[in-house]
Amino acid sequence: MNWSEIRPELLTGLYETVAMVGWASLIAVIGGVPLGVLLVLTDRGRPLQNALINKVIGFVVNVGRSLPFIILMLALTAFTRALTGTSIGLTGAIVPLAISAIPFFARLVETAVREVDGGLVEAVQAMGGSTRTVVFKALLPQALPSLVAGLTTTVVALIGYSAMAGAVGGGGLGDVAIRYGYQRYEGGVMLATVVLLVVLVNVVQLIGDFFVRTLSDRTTRSAAWLRAPRRTRTTVTAVASVGLVGALTAGTLGLTSEGDAGSDETITVAATPTPHGDIVKFVADNLAKDAGLKVEVKEFTDYVKPNEALANGDVDANFFQHVPFLDDFNKKKHTDLVPTVGILVEPIGIYSKSVDDVSALGSGDTIALPNDTTNEGRALHLLDDQGLIKLKKGTGLDASLNDIADDGGLTLKPLEAAQTPRALEDVDAAIVNGNYAIGAGLTPKKDALVLEKAKGNPYINILAVKKEDRDDPAIKKLGQLLNSDATKKFMEKKFPSSIPVFGPVK
Amino acid sequence: MITTKGLTKVYRTRDREVTALDGVDLHVREGEVHGVVGQSGAGKSTLIRAVNLLEVPTSGTVTVDGTDLTALAGNGKRAGAELRKARARIGMVFQHFNLLSARTVQDNVELPLEILGHSGAERSRKALELLDLVGLADKAKAYPAQLSGGQKQRVGIARALAGDPKVLLSDEATSALDPETTRSILQLLRDLNRDLGLTVLLITHEMDVVKAVCDSASLMKNGKITESGALSDLLATPGSEIAAELFPLTGDPLGAPDRTVVDITFLGENTGQPVISHLARTYNIDVSILGAAMDTVGGKQVGRMRIELPGPYEENVVPIGFLREQGLQIEIVGAADAVKDTQLVAGVAQ
Ligand SMILES: Nc1ncnc2c1ncn2[C@@H]1O[C@H](COP(=O)(O)OP(=O)(O)O)[C@@H](O)[C@H]1O
Ligand SMILES: [Mg+2]
């Protein structure tokens, strides 16, 4: 990838990160401040003392704090959808980010407010102030420096969380790093995003520190900000807030409207980055227009979300999985997604840095293999076919380590599928999926000791749609384009390891 | 002006109960500076906080300027509008000033006015006027952190005066200050009391404070008021601990076995008279002076003297009678096998 290709990705990623984090922070402040203040006010010996409310809020906040963000994000799908109409993309990422940031910030607010000298509360009460007055004239203004410090911490944490937004197609710099840097092995992109993220976090921290220092430094009043008359400060704050919110709104609308520009001819396809996303992009950019079709690609770095997005109508089709995987999803989630056309097979293969032939592997050797159900089964069947191990009779596609009748003295090491090529240095051989092999700079046809057969392979990656859309003309058209000669040529050139296997699939 | 009746406060914690106030009847007259003294933990702070209902008493009533505040208080920790309005008319100053560090001096003084709903122009006029009154007109734009302790307390006082209170409550307002500053703050309180007719209830553990500004005082012990009254009356009360603390006399109170030790208190016009030489001449006895002090208490001249007369108490009944006839307060503090009609106990200190 050259710089002119990287730059727009980085800019969009940067903007998406800013939009996600900006909105989530704004919502975190709106939700976290009242919660944090209530946590203090309802505590023992405080003006609104109420053990029940205090415990309930405390519990809810703790639940929010204890869930890992990625789980929260995936668990909130239905809620996000009910609230915003979609559970993917920028909007789909903002809601879970905000929901996880609210309790995080609420605890920081609680600490900040608790630190305010109780004597000040008493002073305001003694002069006839209500609880409201205590909160707005004493607690919040006095806690302001700590609140700003807490907000800075929250924003930085959100920048970190936003890296996971790619799982719901939310984009952002972290997602660019995962999709290009990690999955497409573009070292330059990885480096650029990391640098941008480091700069972003540091800028946020610097701004936060500046305000904390200015606000707490009432003795010297050296900061120009505090020397300015109050009216000026209010005006500047108001203009800045309106500007920030306005820019966020405009930008977000611009970004999100791209996705559902809504003419009936637009088909949104969810796909994992390589090769699937790139193939759909090729079709969208080169073939769709002549066919009177508009195709949008939504890249996901998660394997559950694309099916969920398809099932609930956020996207019109997806292209990342094979039939066994789809069947499993349908069964577990009670959905009715169907394959339309097959497109490619990415033969899983056995790779090694230490031996040149499968026959050289045997007792005492260690072999790494993917640890997810489908790929593990696939890998075990490949080993069985090669006579390296023996599976129990009648073992199906979902073979697991428990189904091995004879391991031939091998040590099998299950790893995250993406990690198996990286393990090559440490093991005698590794079973690697085609896409990860290419990503790691391997050429399957050349480098693999042995590959799965393409013919009769059950693991053909397919274009999936909702059952009722199977005969939709636009979907049919897209299927044809994906199965066209032009696509085949593109694939052979760009993804030599992906073997085109076209034609309808049941 | 301030009256409490049967004021009781019991703190209940999980494992024990603390009776901080145990049936306190306090009466402070209008225009008076009243001091409450007592050891740490005696319940002084609880008492003053109960006066404006910051602490809701377990039982008993508080009346300030004719209003029964306990009747206005709800039963929760939240104060209703009526009570808040009443509080706005009671100023309060604190040991640690409790100024809002995020606000300028002027904005601190304006805070009570904001609560009362005054307009911006009105607030700033009044705040500047009050700052002028406490001698800080030039510090209006400063932040509290830029002020000395004494200046901070002046701001605290200006703030307490913003609601035009008739009553000022002060909990150890000078305890965090050095003696010099303490004196100037006390002088300010005294001036405000005179010029504005302000009734002041102040809590302190320092007798010097009582001596410097109070018209009357109460002593608290274990949540109870054990003595209370105008300072001149207390000084005239045999066995008054406040009097003894105000005027500690040196000299061994027990004296020699065949001697009688007598404390004499001179008040007002008595102070100028040559009573001792008169006594010595009239009865032809050798009077030894063990200790003596003269001071101004509550604006009046007061003298105390500890003398020793030869012979046991029985032989001195007549001379002592003579002293009583002169209108002096007499207290027999030590005599060989004499009647101990008093117990001088020290220990009013924190
Ligand atoms: N909020 C509280 N909870 C429990 N006990 C308290 C509380 N406030 C004061 N006390 C207790 O009440 C007693 C009187 O305290 P206080 O009025 O502060 O005394 P003083 O001001 O004379 O030193 C002390 O024993 C103190 O421990
Ligand atoms: Mg106290």
Automatic annotation (TrEMBL), chain A:
Question: Which InterPro entries does the UniProt entry name for this protein?
Answer: Lipoprotein_NlpA (IPR004872), MetI-like (IPR000515), MetI-like_sf (IPR035906)
Residue ranges occupied by any ABC transmembrane type-1 domain in the UniProt entry = 14-208
Against PROSITE patterns, the record matches this protein to: ABC_TM1
Q: Which GO terms describe its biological process?
A: transmembrane transport
Q: Which UniProt keywords apply?
A: Cell membrane, Lipoprotein, Membrane, Palmitate, Signal, Transmembrane, Transmembrane helix, Transport
Keyword Signal on this protein? yes
Where located? Cell membrane; Membrane
Q: How does it sit in the membrane?
A: Multi-pass membrane protein; Lipid-anchor
| Transmembrane regions listed in the UniProt entry | 20-41, 53-76, 82-106, 147-169, 189-212, 233-255
Q: Which domain of life is it from?
A: Bacteria
- The signal peptide annotation in the UniProt record is none
* GO cellular component labels: plasma membrane
Question: Which family does this protein fall into?
Answer: Belongs to the binding-protein-dependent transport system permease family. CysTW subfamily. Belongs to the NlpA lipoprotein family.
- What is this protein's record name? ABC transporter permease subunit
Protein species of origin? Streptomyces coryli
